[in-house]
Design a protein that fits this description.
Shape: elongated
CATH superfamily of the largest domain: Cupredoxins -  blue copper proteins
Radius of gyration: 28 Å
Distance between the termini: 99 Å
Structural class: alpha+beta
Mean pLDDT: 90
Largest sheet: 5 strands, mixed
Bound molecules: copper (II) ion
CATH class of the largest domain: Mainly Beta
Number of domains: 2
Strand order of the largest sheet: 3-2-1-5-8
Helix content: 25-40%
Number of strands: 10
CATH architecture of the largest domain: Sandwich
CATH topology of the largest domain: Immunoglobulin-like
Order of helices and strands: HHHEEEEEEEEEEH
Number of helices: 4
Low-confidence stretches: none
Length: 269
């Protein structure tokens, strides 16, 4: 069957709940198409029906029929049902506290926007995010993680690269370091503004492995167009291997002390 979503270039869905979002979008698009055709026909009808040659003198009483009022009311009613009955509940499932998965079974990530990049913070094997403070912010510590906090010792921070486990619920807390950005995962049918001073959680379950684009959906400055990151949905084995690689890179184990150098030979007398 012809799909308006496809004709408009909607990206393929890669999340569990995405089908419901796509279905609602398709219904809205068909509704808009019907309205567009209906109003256009009515427009041409009025041009013809009330042309000056047919009505040389203006009629100050206007249309007496109630049909247009009923039509307008029906449109408002349908829009209210779509928004309150379908749109808001779909959104609520992604952001309401009691709908969130358990910490233990979810991949948890902090996504922090800045002009013009996305930083990702993973809690590491201990599952606890290290403390953060602006006093620790530097080019090598873009999220201001407290280097002395024990929970921070295994934390992983990446720039413009986010990895997820296919089939596992993912909870992302979104914030910003400077201006308002918007964290948009179009393949996951998720989008949330990143607001300085707020940490806003959302969750979804990726169901299709692959590499997807993350974009900023809020015009945030001159480099907005370049504020893109990559999202890799992979198996648990691949995810764990990537975590280990990042951990080795970001927390290199102390190298074993070199063997004591042999005493230099006594100079010959
Ligand atoms: Cu941005």
């Amino acid at each position: 069957m012809f799909s308006i979503n496809k004709a408009l270039g909607l990206l393929p869905n890669a999340s569990e709940h995405g089908r419901a979002v796509d279905h609602l979008l398709e219904v809205c698009h068909w509704f808009m198409a019907v309205l567009f055709v209906g109003w256009t026909c009515y427009f041409f009808y009025t041009i013809f029906r009330f042309h000056k040659s047919r009505h040389p003198r203006a009629d100050y009483h206007g249309v007496q029929s109630k049909a247009s009022a009923h039509l307008e009311f029906s449109v408002v009613l349908i829009e209210a049902v779509l928004l309150l009955g379908f749109g808001l509940p779909l959104w609520g499932k992604r952001v309401t506290g009691d709908q969130f998965p358990d910490n233990a079974e979810a991949v948890r990530i902090h996504a922090v926007g800045e002009q013009f990049a996305w930083n990702f913070h993973y809690p590491g094997p201990d599952g606890v995010f290290g403390k953060q403070n602006t006093e620790f912010l530097s080019s090598s510590n873009p999220l201001g993680i407290d280097p002395k906090d024990p929970a921070a010792q295994d934390d992983i921070v990446t720039k413009n690269e986010m990895h997820l486990i296919n089939g596992k619920p993912t909870v992302i807390d979104i914030s910003s370091k400077d201006v308002i950005h918007s964290f948009s995962l179009q393949h996951m049918r998720m989008c949330q503004d990143a607001i300085p001073g707020s940490r806003i959680p959302m969750w979804f379950r990726p169901i299709r492995a692959g590499e997807y684009e993350i974009v900023c959906a809020q015009l945030c400055g001159a480099g907005h167009f370049a504020m893109r990151a990559v999202m890799k949905v992979e198996t648990k084995v691949e995810f764990d291997a990537w975590m280990k690689e990042q951990s080795d890179l970001q927390h290199p184990k102390a190298a074993p002390a070199p063997a004591a150098a042999a005493a230099p030979p006594e100079p010959a007398k």
